Automatic annotation (TrEMBL):
Pfam families: KH_dom-like (PF14714). Residues 75-108 form the GTPase Der C-terminal KH-domain-like domain. This is GTPase Der. It comes from the Bacteria. One of its GO terms (molecular function) is ribosome binding.
Length: 108
């Protein structure tokens, strides 16, 4: 599916649901619950409920696309990534392999 392709390619992601204005409040609640249930693994993606015909919700959509793009093209220095890795390892030690613990040294 399209969502899987975007994730596998490591692309930025913004989700927009159109025809939102044509739904009853009950249908809207159902769709929100289903989205949370089915798309739990993309909790980093902004979700927008829009009406292309009336233009509602579209203004915020453009801002999310810009933010996602900016986040996707941000470069982090190796030293900062290594520091994040060290912080994570200090909170949750890697598993033991035999009698030794795996050592994670660099992130890039």
């Amino acid at each position: 599916n399209l969502l899987g392709f975007a994730l596998e390619a490591g692309r930025a992601l913004v989700i927009a649901l159109n025809k939102w204005d044509g739904m009853t409040p009950g249908e809207r609640d159902f769709v929100k619950i289903e989205l949370e249930r089915r798309l739990f693994f993309v909790d980093f993606a902004d979700i927008h409920f829009i009406s292309a015909m009336h233009g509602t919700g579209v203004g915020n959509l453009y801002q999310s696309v810009q933010n996602s793009f900016k986040s996707a093209v941000t470069r982090w220095p190796t030293s900062r990534l290594t520091q994040i890795l060290e912080d994570a390892v200090s909170e949750h030690a890697p598993p033991m392999v035999g009698s030794r613990r795996i050592k994670l040294r660099y992130a890039h």
